[in-house]
Each structure stands twice: as structure tokens, then as C-alpha cells.
């Protein structure tokens, strides 16, 4: 049943941006930022934290006098901004992978995150009217967060005795316990396997039937939806049903290689580049389709600055954004931070002061201009398909290509490549610059969702924008220590902090690996262009196919970006995501069949989707928190000389049994989740 928003006169009396709310938001920020950093490094995905943050805020603040819907909204706004900023790890670990950094310098990492996050907030301010207020974009997570806030608002009138607000904490805790236990069995005791695969050959062609048991990815699949799931499945089929079998049948197998190692090596060195090419062309197509709203956003921005700050004061509370003067001051301070951070990064290179200043100016200008352009694209994608499903990494790919090409021209003309380590330095500078663009993009992607939530519940925009800036600063402070912790505990693929570490336990950081591979390939002129070009052709075909399908069957779609991600990501990552999308589809389909009355059906669909969303958020948060906790235990164990697996049982001949136990736990968890989701 819909919960009506209180009249504007009533909402105006509510406290909004409070000290206790900011403190609670900061605490949630620390948890969700750490969780997102871990999940992003593990599988290349992050989760939108608005909904779980809103639920936790309501559960905590209802214990205090005077709490209300607007205060809860500020908490979730602050926490979601920081959780999203963690997507900067899609680029930054590349500096360790190329050997330029040996850890994460606190001030450089923190300041680059702060600058990118704040610019992401400011760039979304002029987009609020064109993409939120005067737009019919659905903003799925923003709408869902608004509904949850309304449902949990004890200040709203209830229309019946049964209309009792439910916080949803039970669902989040249930999902968190399930995935937390599973994660502990996998990464702590190491008695359960997180994946299993069946390999077979037809002639000399090698095939894989993969399976993954991650409950966090199962939850991510619920949020993605069936359309994205089918696209991911098509990408997997292309990789392991077409491309890898073709390459294994046409490439001689080395004498000492096993069938599995041979197939995986070909997938890494050839097939993933095809996926990267498909992602890149799909990203460019997305930016082309968003060109008009980007122009509208820029036009509105110039109008806002020319109208003067006095206009802002005369507007109604629900229409007040940060004033143009305030925005200009913040941009100026942020640019100073960017210049100082870039100079500290470049100062260690053996180049002249004049060349260093030129590189700083170039890096700052590219970060600012490209960041402003991608802000509109990211916000539009978030409104169209949601923050969780928005292909932010594709914007990162386009950005790293443009930035690398510009720096390559500068490096060749200035002679930097002739000096020792010049190639590595320019690659590192390109990655460092792209990390700012990624921060701007991810914050823009999430912030418009939050502003949509605020618009629906009559929040004050400028106060939300202040909360977003606070969240970005708090999240930026957390990111560097968490990255350092996870790096020393697990290491990254291709970057282990100590010799003798178990490479199978390393965090794959797939997005950072891709960005690094592209940047290194451009600067060293050895990028596998033939496979990238094949991916570009595949991406063009998928774009045309998607257009044709949308015209022939309205409502149907094959997102090219999702297909590209299905090719690029490991199959053991894609499978639980696909299963989660199927689970979501059939649960909602069953509800439609169970209830024929339109009003009852709509109510039950919303309730079911809400339970599923909260359980999915719990699955993601639970596994992530255990992963971070295990990282702390591992680092402490290493410091004490106790080894890198202090809790592992080290059972002999346990591989097959561990895979069976993983499958049993995965199926059991699905049964429990379905029972929770489908209850009347």
C-alpha cells in the first residue's frame, strides 16, 4: 500500500542535516566503503548502498526522539556517496600492478579521492533539474530508497491497522548471516570451495561448464535483473562455447601444460581482449546516445551561474541547490587540491620543473573536462538502469584510452620515453589521472539517485549536496587504509607484496587489470589490437542487434555492455550473477500468477521486490564484511609470524568434497532466500 508523503508544510518542520545523522552516516560509510572495496577487488563489481543505509538509519534513529524521514534520507545520502566512491579501485591498483607503487600512499590516495568525489557532486548539481525534476527516467534505486523511507517513517499516518512500517533489518541480517558464514567457510576455514567447473574436449577444442557459489554475486544478480542476466549468459557462451574452443583447436598446446591451464591462458591473452573491445565500443555508443542530455545539462549549468546567487534564496526549500558562488569556490579549492596532488605524484620523476608543470596542467585539465562530460553520461545511465547495473567501467575504459593517447603524444614530443623508467612513469600518470575521472563518474552515477530520492520525499537539495560532499570526504579517508590492508593480506593478481604468497587467494581486481593492460599496451605499442578490433566488430554487431530487437519486440533488450562483461569476467563470477537474475525473474512471475487482482498484485510485487532487494543487500554486505575481517586476521597473523592462513584446517584430498559442500550450501541458501522472499 502506498504511503503518502506528508504535506510540504509538515515536512518543512522536520530536522534534516543533524549532527547525530552525520555521525551515523560516517559509521555506515566506513562499513560500506570497506565492503565495496573488497567486493570490487574480488570480482569487479560494487553495490549501491543507498537502500541498506536507509534501512540501518531507520532502525537506529527510531530509538532517538524527533527522528524523521528527512534525517534518515540524509544518512543514506551520505553513506551511499562514500560507498560508491570506492569504485576508484577499478583503476588505482594498477599502479601496484605495473610496479610504480609498492603500497597506497595515504595522502595521494585520499586527496585524489576527495577531489574526484567533490567534483562528482558539484557536476551533478546543474543536472538535477534536467535529469531528475523534469525527467521521466525511472531511477530504480532512488525510487526504491524513497519507498523504503516512506514505509519506515513513523510520522506518517497509517491507513489501516495492518499498515505497519517494516524496517527490513531482518532481511538484511538474514542475508548477511548466510553469506558471512559461507565466506568464513571459504576464506577462513577453507573447507568449502567457491567455484567448480566441468572441463571436457571435443576433438582438440576445450569447453568449460562453470559454476560459482558466491552468495554476494547471487545478490548482485537479483539487483541486475533478467535482461542483464541473459546478456551476461550470452557473453559466457561466446567465451567458453565459441571463442576458447576455437583458439584451443587452432593453437598447439605446450607439452607441459594441462588442458585447463591451456584454456584459461588463451582466455586471458586473447578472449578477454575481445570482451574489452566490445565494452569500449558499447561505452562510446552509450555516450553518443547521451549527447543531447549532456548538452541540456551544460546549458542549464550556464543558466544557473548567470542567474546569480540571490535567485537561489527566493526559491522554495525543495528547489534550493548550492548557490553558484558556493559551487565556484568549491571547484576552485578542488582544483588546487588536484594540482597539488598531481605535482606530488610527478615530482619524483627526473624531469625538468617546466615539463612537470606542463604535465600537471594537462592532467588537471583532462580530469576536469572529461570528468564533466562523463558526469552527465553516468547520471543518465543511473537513471535509466540503476546504479548497480550502470556500466561505469566502460567509461573508465574510454577515459584511459583517451588519456593514454594524449600522454603518449606528450611523452614522444618531450623525450620522456627516452629516459630510464619513462614508459612506466607515463603509464602510471595515465592511470592516476583516470582514477580522478573514475571518482567523478561513480559519484555522479550515484548522486542523482540520491537526489531523486530526495525529490520524492521533499528533501532540501542543497543539504543533500552537503551530505554528499561529507560522505565523499569520509569515504576517501577510509579507502587508502582498506586498500593497504587488503593488499598486504591477499595481494592482487600480478602484484603480490611478499614472495611465497598463495596466488589463488589473491584478489583478481579485474577492472584494474583491464585498465592497466590497456594503458601498458598503448604506451608499449604491443596491445593486442587484433583481438580488440574483433571485439569492436562484435560490439557493433551487438548494438545493431539490440536496436533491432527493441524495435521488433518492445521491452526486450540485449545490453551490449553486459554481453561484453560476460566475455571479460571469469565464468565462475558470471554464473551466480545469472542465477540471481533468474531467481528474481521467477519469483516475480510467480507473484503475478498468484494474485490476479491488479491492486493486490501491485502491492505484493512491491513487497516481494523489497524483500528480495534487502536480502540481496544483506548477502553482499555479509560476505564483504567477513572478507575485510579475514584480511585483518591474516595481516595480524603475518605480523606475528603465524602464516597467511591462520584459521585454515588444511584437510587432505578435500578439493572435490569442498566443491560438493559449496554446491550444497549454495542450493540451501537459495531455498532459504526463496522462502523469505515469497512469504505472504
Description:
This protein is mostly helical and 680 residues long. It contains 25 helices and 2 strands. The protein is globular, with a radius of gyration of 25 Å. The two termini are 14 Å apart.
Estimated helix fraction: over 70%
Biggest sheet layout: 2 strands, antiparallel
**Derived structural class:** mainly alpha
How would the global form be characterised?
Answer: globular
Q: Key features?
A:
680 residues, mainly alpha, two-stranded antiparallel ribbon, 72% helix
Give the gist of this structure.
The chain is an all-alpha fold and 680 residues long.
Show the helix and strand layout.
Elements: H1 8-11, H2 19-43, H3 50-61, H4 69-85, H5 94-97, H6 106-124, H7 128-133, H8 140-151, H9 169-188, E1 195-202, E2 205-212, H10 215-224, H11 226-250, H12 259-289, H13 291-307, H14 310-314, H15 324-346, H16 353-385, H17 392-414, H18 422-456, H19 461-489, H20 510-524, H21 529-552, H22 560-568, H23 571-594, H24 598-639, H25 655-678
Antiparallel strand pairs: 1-2
Helix pairs in contact: 2-3, 2-4, 2-19, 2-24, 3-4, 3-8, 4-18, 4-19, 6-15, 6-16, 6-18, 6-19, 8-18, 9-24, 9-25, 10-23, 10-24, 11-12, 11-22, 11-23, 12-17, 12-21, 12-22, 13-16, 15-16, 16-17, 16-18, 17-18, 17-20, 18-19, 18-20, 19-24, 21-22, 23-24, 24-25
Amino acid at each position: 500500500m502506498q504511503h503518502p508523503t506528508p504535506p510540504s508544510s509538515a515536512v518543512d518542520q522536520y530536522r534534516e542535516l543533524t549532527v547525530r545523522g552525520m555521525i551515523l552516516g560516517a559509521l555506515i560509510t566506513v562499513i560500506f566503503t570497506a565492503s565495496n572495496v573488497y567486493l570490487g577487488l574480488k570480482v569487479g563489481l560494487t553495490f549501491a548502498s543507498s537502500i541498506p543505509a536507509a534501512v540501518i538509519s531507520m532502525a537506529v534513529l527510531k530509538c532517538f526522539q524527533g527522528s524523521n524521514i528527512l534525517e534518515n534520507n540524509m544518512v543514506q545520502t551520505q553513506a551511499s556517496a562514500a560507498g560508491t566512491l570506492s569504485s576508484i579501485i577499478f583503476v588505482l591498483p594498477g599502479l601496484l600492478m605495473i610496479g610504480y607503487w609498492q603500497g597506497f600512499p595515504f595522502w595521494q590516495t585520499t586527496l585524489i579521492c576527495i577531489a574526484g568525489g567533490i567534483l562528482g557532486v558539484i557536476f551533478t548539481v546543474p543536472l538535477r533539474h534536467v535529469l531528475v525534476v523534469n525527467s521521466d527516467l525511472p531511477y530504480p534505486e532512488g525510487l526504491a530508497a524513497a519507498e523504503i523511507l516512506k514505509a519506515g517513517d513513523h510520522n506518517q499516518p497509517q491507513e489501516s491497522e495492518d499498515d505497519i512500517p517494516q524496517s527490513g533489518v531482518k532481511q538484511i541480517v538474514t542475508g548477511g548471516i548466510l553469506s558471512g558464514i559461507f565466506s568464513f567457510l571459504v576464506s577462513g576455514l577453507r573447507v568449502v570451495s567457491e567455484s567448480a567447473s566441468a572441463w571436457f574436449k571435443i576433438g582438440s577444442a576445450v569447453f568449460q561448464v562453470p559454476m560459482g557459489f558466491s552468495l554476494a554475486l547471487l545478490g548482485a544478480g537479483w539487483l541486475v535483473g533478467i535482461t542483464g542476466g541473459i546478456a551476461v549468459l550470452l557473453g559466457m557462451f561466446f567465451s567458453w562455447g565459441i571463442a576458447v574452443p576455437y583458439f584451443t583447436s587452432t593453437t598447439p598446446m605446450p607439452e607441459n601444460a594441462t588442458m585447463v591451464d591451456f584454456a584459461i591462458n588463451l582466455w586471458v591473452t586473447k578472449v578477454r581482449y575481445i570482451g574489452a573491445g566490445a565494452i569500449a565500443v558499447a561505452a562510446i555508443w552509450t555516450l553518443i546516445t547521451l549527447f543531447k542530455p549532456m548538452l541540456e545539462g551544460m546549458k542549464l549549468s550556464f543558466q544557473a551561474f548567470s542567474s546569480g546567487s540571490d535567485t537561489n534564496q527566493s526559491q522554495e526549500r525543495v528547489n534550493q541547490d548550492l548557490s553558484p558562488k558556493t559551487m565556484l569556490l568549491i571547484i576552485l579549492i578542488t582544483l588546487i587540491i588536484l594540482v597539488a596532488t598531481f605535482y606530488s605524484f610527478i615530482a619524483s620523476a627526473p624531469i625538468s620543473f617546466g615539463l612537470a608543470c606542463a604535465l600537471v596542467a594537462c592532467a588537471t585539465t583532462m580530469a576536469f573536462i572529461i570528468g564533466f562530460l562523463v558526469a552527465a553520461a553516468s547520471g543518465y545511465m543511473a537513471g535509466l538502469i540503476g546504479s548497480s547495473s550502470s556500466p561505469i567501467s566502460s567509461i573508465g575504459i574510454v577515459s584511459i584510452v583517451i588519456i593514454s593517447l594524449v600522454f603518449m603524444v606528450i611523452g614522444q614530443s618531450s623525450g620522456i620515453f627516452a629516459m630510464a623508467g619513462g614508459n612506466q612513469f607515463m603509464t602510471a600518470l595515465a592511470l592516476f589521472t583516470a582514477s580522478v575521472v573514475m571518482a567523478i563518474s561513480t559519484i555522479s552515477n550515484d548522486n542523482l539517485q540520491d537526489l531523486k530520492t530526495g525529490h520524492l520525499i521533499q528533501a532540501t537539495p542543497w543539504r543533500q549536496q552537503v551530505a554528499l560532499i561529507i560522505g565523499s570526504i569520509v569515504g576517501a579517508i577510509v579507502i587508502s587504509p582498506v586498500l593497504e590492508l587488503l593488499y598486504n593480506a591477499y595481494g592482487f593478481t600480478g602484484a603480490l607484496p611478499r614472495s611465497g604468497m598463495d596466488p589463488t587467494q589473491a584478489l583478481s581486481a579485474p577492472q584494474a587489470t583491464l585498465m592497466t593492460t590497456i594503458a601498458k599496451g598503448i604506451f608499449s605499442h604491443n596491445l593486442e589490437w587484433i583481438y580488440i578490433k574483433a571485439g569492436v566488430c562484435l560490439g557493433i554487431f551487438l548494438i545493431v542487434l539490440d536496436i533491432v530487437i527493441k524495435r521488433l519486440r518492445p521491452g526486450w533488450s540485449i545490453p551490449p555492455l553486459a554481453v561484453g562483461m560476460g566475455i571479460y569476467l571469469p565464468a565462475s563470477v558470471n554464473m551466480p550473477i545469472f542465477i540471481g537474475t533468474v531467481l528474481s525473474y521467477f519469483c516475480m512471475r510467480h507473484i503475478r500468477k498468484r494474485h490476479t487482482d491488479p491492486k493486490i498484485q501491485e502491492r505484493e510485487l512491491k513487497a516481494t521486490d523489497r524483500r528480495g532487494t534487502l536480502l540481496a543487500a544483506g548477502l553482499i554486505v555479509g560476505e564483504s564484511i567477513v572478507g575485510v575481517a579475514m584480511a585483518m586476521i591474516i595481516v595480524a597473523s603475518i605480523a606475528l609470524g603465524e602464516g597467511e592462513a591462520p584459521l585454515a584446517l588444511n584437510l587432505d584430498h578435500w578439493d572435490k568434497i569442498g566443491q560438493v559442500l559449496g554446491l550444497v550450501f549454495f542450493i540451501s541458501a537459495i531455498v532459504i532466500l526463496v522462502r523469505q522472499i515469497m512469504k505472504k
